[in-house]
Specification:
It contains 18 helices and no strands. It is mainly alpha-helical and 457 residues long. Tryptophan binds at residues 24-25, 27-30, 107, 232-233, 235, 238, 240, 327, 330-331, 396.
Length: 457
């Protein structure tokens, strides 16, 4: 390889790639989404399906994305295009990249709205609004806020602006600083919250809700939700990790980093669950199936009853907001890199354009919680539900399926061996079976099961 670098820049070390990828993976998916969908889907059995999907589908697909990105060193669309040509594959494969751009766009539109809630909560806690609050107080405060579209839009706008600002500064300048310091602090505060839950919450019940396997509680939809979330939480299926993979130094071990990132991400999600559910069960007026507001009603109750809770709680939401920014950036990277390559456009301009478009689409999600609460796009789904459904339950798993098939069957084996640093041997066998069979068949089984069972119902 003559010039083994990307024109968009390179991570300055292996560690920084791990931090950036972990920064992408750890976000609202872990802190906001995982607890609330686990609550809605009955707990333990759902968590087991999610963990199985992470291990059997998530890790192979993550390795595939990093590997393809590094082999191509361009935006996902152009990377797949170039690799397809090298392999003499079908000209349709770059569609993976295009689907990813669409998925990233859809996800960021609602992601920014929820992140806006988190920013607002920084100020709410800092003002001491929740001092001594109980479950119903926290519920009312949350619902009153959501009922105000202008207020919600304001915070949504703040978040989009912050994301655009960092994205415009480029891969290394903006991103590395954010992840290097904030991720570790977030982790410490999360542990603190788990400690609170263990002392003041109903830890035993929270723990058993998360971890006791009761297959009866798992609905058909729950299986697809769990698989979709495995992709969402690891940032897989739309090329975000592929785009980041393009900036990875040649000597980084792909297998080790993928496992590290997956483990970190899972630990954060489980810690969030262990912090939130004990509080839910110990607080009158709160219940696990509350929906998207779960994080925003439990955490204020906890901090509201602690000494210095207003300050520490505000810091907690600062960190949630930063975790969201480091994820949001990665949602834009495939589109940004592509536009820069195709039109030689400047990053700042591209960033502003994409930010503006996401902002506009996000208004639909803002309104889903108030003015449009009764507007249903299909079935019972509000605009927010619909965008979440299409991106998370269709586009990401489908993208992941195609990425696995491409990496397993189309990519020349010599490239895979070189990228993974593997010769024949058991590791190579495990990889081959995982990417050719286990991951794709896993996705297909969940899709087929969901369609079959819903048709029967
Ligand atoms: N993984 C992030 C989270 O859990 C969200 C995210 C960032 C994402 N980039 C992505 C989801 C790419 C899907 C695809 O909050």
């Amino acid at each position: 390889m003559p010039d083994d670098v990307s024109k968009h820049g390179m991570w300055s070390s292996r560690l920084l790639f791990v931090l950036a990828a972990a920064g992408s993976a750890v976000g609202l998916g872990n802190l906001w989404k995982f607890p609330y969908i686990t609550g809605e889907n009955g707990g333990g059995a759902f968590v087991v399906v999610y963990l199985v999907c992470i291990a059997l589908i998530g890790i192979p697909v993550m390795m595939a994305e990093v590997m393809l990105g590094r082999a191509g060193r361009q935006s996902p669309i152009n990377t797949i295009r170039a690799l397809t040509e090298r392999a003499g594959g079908d000209a349709w494969w770059p569609l993976i990249g295009w689907m990813g751009v669409v998925a990233g766009f859809l996800i960021l539109s609602f992601y920014a709205v929820i992140a806006g809630w988190a920013i607002f909560y920084i100020f709410r806690l800092a003002r001491g609004e929740f001092d001594g609050t109980d479950g119903s107080g926290a519920n009312d405060a949350f619902n009153n806020f959501l009922a105000e579209p202008l207020e919600v839009t304001l915070w949504h706008t703040v978040f989009i602006a912050a994301t655009v600002f960092i994205v415009a500064r480029g891969v290394v300048g903006g991103l590395e600083v954010a992840v290097r310091w904030l991720m570790p602090v977030l982790f410490v505060l999360l542990i603190l919250l788990v400690g609170y839950a263990a002392i003041y919450g109903d830890f035993a019940q929270g723990f058993s809700f998360l971890f006791s396997f009761d297959a009866d509680k798992l609905s058909v939809g729950g299986v697809l939700t769990a698989m979709g979330h495995a992709f969402f939480t690891l940032s897989l299926g739309m090329g975000a990790i592929m785009a980041y993979g393009a900036y990875v130094p040649a000597n980084t071990s792909i297998g080790t980093t993928a496992v590290t990132i997956a483990v970190l991400d899972t630990v954060v999600a489980l810690a969030a669950g262990l912090a939130i559910f004990p509080i839910v069960f110990a607080t009158p007026g709160l219940e696990p199936g509350t929906g998207p507001g779960l994080l925003f009603v439990t955490v204020p109750v906890a901090f509201g009853s602690l000494p210095l809770g207003a300050i520490v709680g505000a810091v907690f939401f600062i960190l949630v907001s930063f975790a969201a920014v480091t994820s949001a950036i990665s949602l834009t990277e495939p589109a940004i890199a592509f536009l820069v390559e195709e039109y030689n456009a400047k990053r700042p301009r591209v960033a502003i354009t994409i930010g503006a478009a996401c902002w506009l689409l996000g208004i639909g999600s803002v309104l889903s919680f108030n003015v449009w609460a009764d507007v249903h796009i299909v079935g019972e789904l509000t605009f927010f539900d619909f965008v979440d459904y299409v991106s998370g339950k269709i586009l990401l798993p489908l993208g992941g399926l195609l990425i696995a098939l491409f990496a397993g069957w189309v990519l020349p084996r010599a490239i895979a061996k070189e990228q993974l640093g593997l010769e024949q041997g058991w590791k190579w066998q495990v990889w081959t079976i995982g990417i050719r069979f286990v991951a794709p068949i896993g996705v297909v089984i969940v899709f087929a099961y969901t369609i079959y069972e819903s048709a029967m119902a």
